[in-house]
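Posted in: Structural Biology > Protein-Ligand Complexes

Title: Requesting predicted complex, iron/sulfur cluster in pocket

I'd be grateful if someone could produce the 3D structure tokens for the following input. Sequence and ligand are given below.
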Amino acid sequence: MTKLSKSAYMKGEQCQRLLWFADRKQLPEVSLADQHKFDQGHDFEKYVYLLFPKAVDLSGTRGKENIEKTQEAIKKKKTIFEAGVQFEDLFVRSDIFEPVGDNWNLYEIKSTTQVKKQHIPDLAFQKYVLEKAGFKINKCFVLFLNKEYVKKGKIKAKELVSKEDVTEQVELIDDIEGNAQKYLETIKDDCEPPITITVNCNKPYPCPLKEHCWGTLPTNNVLHLTNWRQYWNFFHQGIVDIKDIPKETELKPKDEVIRKAVNKCQVVYSKEHIKHFMNTLKWPLYHFDFETFDTAVPIYDKSRPYQKIPFQYSLHIQHEDGKLEHFEYLADGTKDPRLKLLEQLKGEIEGNGSVVVFNKSFEIMVLTKLAEDFPEHAEWVNKVLGRIVDLAVPFQNFHYYCPTQKGRYSIKKVLPAITGKGYDNLEINNGGDASIMYFNSHIKNNEEVHNKLRQDLLNYCGLDTEGMVWIVDELKKLIK
Ligand code: SF4
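-- Reply #1 --
Done. Output follows.
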């Protein structure tokens, strides 16, 4: 019999095509980032469980066994972890099901730092199925991470876990029955649902089928434009290629740059604006980049849920006469890397030159937290913060744009566009993978780390800052 589970229902809420592929187990392999997310969720769950010491834990059971053991625990009026209940062709496994007199409370565990919109239909589907199965639901709660929690010694579950009553929001959802039937039909259908690319491809989660569905779009499509309201309008009107946008249609200034570059098939830049940016640089330039990892449950004292913990940096000092120096740090072992990293960095960022980063909000956030957690270094960190210049600015403002950037201005797009060099030949070629590979090898598994992996990490972070040196060189040539 076809069954619709809670996770299938939620996939249907995002997109029926995603549901169809997921039901046939035809989704791409889980990415390193997604696996890390799941692992973090499981870690958090362990601390939530500590708050219900008398509960029956059914997380190790599956299918029929899970449903039968749930029934036994229900008869004994026990709180249950992973309570499995089926009503006709609908099935739920609820994170926590707790008796309250003759009624029941329903808890959903989410390893986020706030209640999110998508948590509500998740609980609404569970409530619907449980009520159809004869249970009276008293309250619905989301249990999530307290973002203000700062670890000091052993984790205190009571302080780590936040609880919000969302019963009212859940009760406002009244389309469960219709949706569930619709999603069951989708699963049963032998034909793949037609492509319906929408804003939902990224909401609430980036869809794992994006490459499959978006791969058929023209090279320069309207989804590269920055004004998303306008580009979805174009898309729904059947205008998919940027070249097909009617000439008389007015676009926002940044999108005009994109259209001009695509139509002329060449780079578009503003000498005047780039000159203005270059004049803000104070030599020598300290090109700087952090790599960080984060965990739902903090593992070091003086850190919070999902705080970015820097474990590596690369620093290229570019002098006006062309001289280049390189410094780097890559932590080793399982201990908190922050203090050692800070101390080394302090000896290397000297003088008064600009500290050049690419997309400053990230480096500013990490440095600000370092100053907060290690106040003895706050004065130095604050001086560095005052010297930061964001090399992404000319690209964010579309004062330089090459059609190969496809509407983006990350260093991964800008570097190849402006220098012809990129990350393709590296073993590790993105920050997300670098972070998780470091975390898994050095912290989670504490395995004997291969020199090769450490070298790959150094190569990756080193290219980020060397790439910034090359970008500055190219900008200099443009304004000559
Ligand atoms: S990429 Fe978009 S259209 Fe394709 S399955 Fe995912 S959400 Fe649906």
